[in-house]
Design a protein that fits this description.
The complex is a heterodimer of chains A (171) and B (180). In chain A, 82% of the residues lie in helices and 0% in strands. By secondary structure, chain A is mainly alpha-helical. Chain B is globular, with a radius of gyration of 20 Å. The chains are: A mainly alpha (171), B mainly alpha (180).
Chain lengths: 171, 180
């Protein structure tokens, strides 16, 4: 039952990830941390970090979530359920690209969703921040990471590795 | 030299792309283009640009969708499976290994300190993502209202984000659907 729920949720969440890969985070956090308690906020943060550290898309963080929920089977099924909606949708759209691109319905929906997901991400950042930022030192690490990624071309993976080293030394 | 496009060749190519592309979406897309358009000439520049556009305008993580779209253009469904499997193989394997290690060494003092630093950096990363997305998307009062309403609905009223995204789509349809 747990596996079925995991797969179904990941299927729905990936089908609604509109406007960038990070858009799945508010949905993942709500379902897996808040509703089902399969992960803590800290474990969720760690899963994002692993997804960011490993090469390829952030989506592989879902393998980490699947592993926590149900071991190796959970990890593999999590990846399959994450990719399935994308495969179905993209193959259909690739075939009817021009009518899809001109579709006023799709455009109008997306125009509403794209700014809204920014608000959702901001709410998640606050919730995760209240777990991760507990003293001046952790706020310093968060601030430096933000500045490096927002204003320089530093690779986020390097920032995360650097923050891990800083954590080992200072925290 | 133009390589023959076989399912095996597609898988290996995307395994390479998926294994050596770190960081953000743009570094990955640049790597895609160098390998597929410039080196192997499997796709024209226009086909590549169209795949990126489709990746961005379809639900699902854009980089995953771009790979799926390229697979479809090259070899239909078999191509899709080859690009998807290749693109995520290394990352998934490493992620599972890290997850095993992480679960086994829970409680380790050093790992706890490392992950505290990492957690703070992830929050900083999220803020920078929000900053970049807002700069591209928030352009007028209506978009500010959409973002604000979603923020309040989740942060204050703790409504479900899946429902909120659907609601934002329907509201978008009501607000923007009649233009033209």
């Amino acid at each position: 039952m747990v596996l079925l729920k995991l797969c179904w949720l990941l299927f729905v969440i990936n089908a609604l990830t509109i406007g960038g890969g990070y858009v799945m985070l508010p949905m993942l956090q709500k379902e897996f941390v808040v509703n089902y308690h399969w992960l803590t906020n800290q474990e969720f943060l760690d899963a994002i970090a692993i997804g960011q550290l490993t090469p390829g898309p952030l989506t592989v963080m879902n393998a980490v979530i699947g592993y926590k929920v149900s071991g190796l089977t959970g990890a593999v099924l999590a990846m399959v359920s994450s990719y399935l909606p994308c495969i179905v949708i993209v193959t259909i759209v690739a075939r009817y690209y021009y009518s899809y691109r001109e579709s006023i319905i799709v455009q109008a929906c997306f125009r509403g969703i794209k700014p809204a997901v920014i608000g959702l991400l901001a709410a998640v950042a606050i919730s995760l921040g209240s777990t991760a930022i507990v003293d001046p030192r952790t706020s310093g690490i968060a601030l430096i990471s933000f500045a490096l990624i927002a204003f320089t071309k530093t690779d986020p993976s390097i920032v995360i590795v650097g923050a891990g080293i800083a954590g080992a030394v200072f925290l | 030299m133009e390589d023959k496009i076989t399912i095996k060749a597609i898988f290996w190519k995307f395994l390479k792309i998926g294994s050596f592309s770190f960081g953000g979406v743009y570094s990955m897309l640049a790597f895609f283009e160098r390998e597929l358009v410039e080196k192997n000439k499997w796709l024209t520049h226009e086909e590549f640009v169209e795949s990126v556009a489709i990746g961005q305008m379809t639900p699902g993580p854009p980089i995953v969708n771009t790979g799926i779209c390229i697979g479809y253009k090259l070899k239909r469904l078999k191509g899709v499976l080859a690009t998807t499997a290749g693109q995520s193989f290394t990352g998934t394997l490493l992620a599972i290994l890290l997850a095993v290690f992480y679960v086994k060494s829970r409680g380790n003092v050093l790992l706890t300190s490392v992950m505290k630093g990492v957690g703070a950096a992830v929050v900083g990363l999220l803020l920078s993502i929000i900053f970049k997305m807002a700069r591209n998307t928030i352009k007028d009062l209506t978009s500010v209202l959409f973002a604000l309403a979603a923020f309040i609905a989740l942060a204050l009223f703790r409504l479900n984000p899946i429902g909120l995204i659907l609601a934002a789509g329907i509201t978008g349809l009501a607000v923007y659907g009649r233009r033209r």
